[in-house]
Write a structure and sequence with these properties.
Layout: E1 23-24, H1 25-31, H2 37-45, E2 49-51, E3 54-55, E4 62-63, E5 70-72, E6 75-77, E7 85-90, E8 119-120, E9 129-135, H3 138-145, E10 153-159, H4 165-173, E11 176-178, E12 181-182, E13 187-191, E14 202-208, H5 215-222, E15 227-235, E16 238-239, E17 247-251, H6 256-259, E18 274-276
Parallel strand pairs: 9-15
Antiparallel strand pairs: 1-4, 2-3, 2-5, 5-6, 7-9, 7-17, 8-9, 10-14, 10-15, 11-12, 13-14, 15-16, 17-18
Amino acid sequence: MRRPDDVRPGQPTRSGLSPAVPRSLGRTLSKLGVCSRREAERWIAAGRVTVNGREVRAPRPPVDPARDVILVDGLRVGAGLERVVLALHKPVGLLTTRVDPAGRPTVYDCLRDLDRWVFPVGRLDRDTSGLLLLTNDTALARRLTDPEQHVPRTYHARVRGRPDAETLQRLADGVNLGRGVVTRPASARLLESPPGAPAEGSWLELVLTEGRKRQIRRMCAILGHPVQQLIRLRIGPFTLGPLPPGHWRHEKGSGLESCLVSSGEVVFGVGCNNRDLTPQ
């Protein structure tokens, strides 16, 4: 069941949203990947959505996302908008959600100057840092998160103790998480500790092709090496690079779409925004 504050898209239809067919406002927001239909109805009732400059409190009036100007929290959503893809270095302590009922800081605190609606491509938990992608493109998000696409995700994890060769092989072969769930085969290897890193524990590089909730933490804990620090460095062709915590890069390169079906690497930084938005 989705959390009330979950702003990730649901499962858009493979055919996408036809801009020529007016739909109810709630359904339109759902089809565009802004949020679930039920969440859209709550946002509309709360006055967070406007159409052509007018606040709308009912989810049923038809809208045409290709013609009507739809704003959520003052940010434009709709069909035919320029694709937005952000690479954010998520710091530890931020939640991957739009609004937290308890008032805790979220990744959107790093995006205050952004003028377009974006949603996170997957999640990083509060205690994990590293690469988080945000976009307004549901097709891109679907491709990167669909388990059938086997998109690799690379993590560096500092764990308690020093895993031996047998443990690394078990991580690679798949770990039984319980209730019949066994993780997919992965890549696992020991790393040298980076300069200035805590002396306690060992560093691992793990490459997964799935994204179960707190998967790496669960895998390592089951094998007796709890995670003490976790950083995501790569999602498919997207890399974190030297991006500092709390900063983001806005990729607008024309080669973005083609890179999704190749094994090439996207190099962020050329012609992109790079803003210091580290939360205070």
